[in-house]
């Protein structure tokens, strides 16, 4: 018996009619800052800061953005739904030490963000003064833990905004977002202004004003933690001659030292102005150590009053060192000092005289 012929099955209908255009994605709408709980990217607990490489001269090219180098403490301000956290460069929570900055951060809410900036205290002429910041914070001694109620955060980058991790975004876009975010705010969190001028001319004027230097940021680079070369700094350098009065031995380098003890003249007496442990090549360190050991101090009292607790090998005040440094601290010590070389009295090397 022959099978009946199969009937042709009806053709299936297309999923989309020819007249229908494919669905296209729409531009993302601006997020509602009143809904910070709708996160696309979780806020990092902490971001290792991007650091600037020290350069002797500003790099050339129009791909750099320039601003002042602020003389203070690097901070990251985390503004979250549950409150504000202020973290130091090393990751310590110093929210309680910067109450005005924390309050200004709360005023930027309810959006969520991480602002990168530098906390400073301004002097009477409106210049950042690291010594005043130290005094305000009580950075040493029994007053450690004080609050810097007069500190200002100069914001220069934005790492996270309202559910979006911005570290992969180029700097020029992060900068636009930061400017929009801080528009109209001039309290304890302020925008670090970019300066559209030739960086060489800018540096000359910055140094003439007694400021610390300038910072350049590559406009096309993302936010990368550490010293990557995306950010550079050019500093205003001071250089003076100081007397070497001792050294701190080093356990890592038996033939070298951990640091040199420096002194300047205060009237007719030598006054301790700080210790220095950077700027030495190994050969120079070894040579210096041999010279210093031949000049060991043979009296009971050291050549200068010394407040430190470290074991110091005191020497006769004979050798004079040329030292680069950025500034003086409030207690009369060299800040960011670096060794350049030995000077000779025959080279008109007058030991620095304190005012």
UniProtKB/TrEMBL annotation:
Question: Its Gene Ontology molecular function terms?
Answer: ATP binding; DNA ligase (ATP) activity
Instruction: Quote the EC number.
Output: 6.5.1.1
Q: Which UniProt keywords apply?
A: Ligase
Task: List, alphabetically, the Pfam families matched.
Answer: DNA_ligase_A_C, DNA_ligase_A_M
| Entry's Gene Ontology BP terms | DNA recombination; DNA repair
Q: Which domain of life is it from?
A: Bacteria
Query: What reaction gets catalysed by this protein?
Result: ATP + (deoxyribonucleotide)n-3'-hydroxyl + 5'-phospho-(deoxyribonucleotide)m = (deoxyribonucleotide)n+m + AMP + diphosphate
> Does the record carry Disulfide bond as a key word?
no
Q: Where is this region: Disordered?
A: 1-43
The UniProt record lists the ATP-dependent DNA ligase family profile domain at 144-235
Point to the regions of Pro residues compositional bias.
1-12
Give the transmembrane ranges. Answer: none
Q: Which family does it belong to?
A: Belongs to the ATP-dependent DNA ligase family.
**Name the UniProt record assigns to this protein:** DNA ligase (ATP)
